[in-house]
Amino acid sequence: MKNRAKYIFPFMLILLIFNSCYKDNGNYDYLSEDEVGVIKIDTINVPDRYALMRSLNPGDTVKMQMNVTYSHKENLRYRWIAYPYPYKAVQSGNAMVYPAADTIATTKDLSWVVNLDPGNWTFKYFVEDTISGQKTFFDFGGYTVINQNGSRTALYLLTEIDGETDIELYSSKLALVWSGDKTYPRYRSQTLGCGLLPGSPEFLGYSSSSGAVYVFTDQNGYRLNKAGLTKLDEFSGMFYNVPTYNPQAFVNINSCDFLINNGKLHVLYKSMSNDGKFSAPISGDYDLFPYLIYQTKNTYSPISGAINADQIVYDTKNNQFRPYYPQSTGVANFKTTVGNAVADVNNMPGTPLAIVDCNGGSTYAIMNVAGIPYLYQLCFYNVVDDGDLSQGNVVSLAGCTDLLKAKNFCSSEAGSAFFYATDKNVYSFSTTSGKTTSNTLYTCEANEEVTYIAQMPSGGFPTAGCVLWIAVWDSAEKDGKIVEFEVDPYGGIARSQWGPMFGSTNPNPYKVGGYGKIKYMLPITSMSF
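Below the sequence we write its predicted structure tokens.
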């Protein structure tokens, strides 16, 4: 009961705040209950009903038309409120009090310029009859992230313009967590006025721990402030002892930045006093494939004895997966694989074509074994190392068109399908569809070539894994374009499911241009404050 009360009290407080602002001006004593009626808010046919569930930026204008039905609309009053999430009591003198909610509008429909502080906010819409006191409300559900000024959540595009590097953005209503359908061409160079970065783009990364966007070109690496994308430091400033420049992969997990450079692992723990600099190369006799895992630990309900690694890497020199344990000075080994294991993580066959994360914590190792591609299903997430880290059978990918010619792959932990691209086509393969062949998802037009593909990551929101972005370069128009698909993350096929529900009127697929040559795409779904 105590647990329920702590949630009920803040909500009742909001109702009291709303109710105390007004006085009753009469009554309906002369009318029957049927004649008075009931206030109803139509939550199904509200245009763009998810506008207050998407990421918002300071200065954005949010508009929403509400459908309210009632027999005495002339007596209704309205209030739109916002309060921090989670809603907690704060110290005020000697007492703990709940902060007053912010009123952002008192009109039936909303037209609001975002002016709240950065952070997480919950929104509610109240309607009350000033005569009878009858009231109702609409809870928009969950919380909305309001970004810092200059920070945006979107699909970040690393693009090449006249031989140099820019960051451009694409925001999609289909992704739900972003602020609708918007394009931001020349975002860093012109909109923010930061100019182009020297050199051709390689890849980028985002660190919620260190609060930075990392950009790597063929000439230099840069750590940028997430607000305004201004330069914090260059590659030489990221290390005490600067290694030979050859960046290959970056990821932020377990409150730590991981970088593979020249086949070696470098680590940056934000919780440690290291002035924001990466470690020296983690020791060991290894040469790493450009892969870093996105998930290793279940921090909510881990099983007893689960692998406690902060990172899993693949050593091409010794053909094995290897764990990196918290604050260790070297990469370690897994236990000796038992004889009946389907796959041996300590002695993988062939050469990796790709290693991707799929299906709720699975790892797919796509290997070239004597000219035939195979998929090895493994799991390092929330499992005990009992000598068998395989998960499911080895799958032949011989029926996948042009897989050996693929130049990049993508996947999501939200489904069992992975996607791969050649210069002219994008294909998918699902381990759970029962098919042994690939599915052709997109074929380029005459002057197009595929330059990159990316998939919406998992993360709890309904559209997790359901959006696929294909970057193409139109050599005739000199135009970088995005082909956006809504997909089934399990079947790997185009399928409209959430788009129409969330107010997207775009066709499936949808194409938008106006960018430089897109070399890399990274969905950033939340900024840390």
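DSSP finds three helices and 36 strands in the chain.
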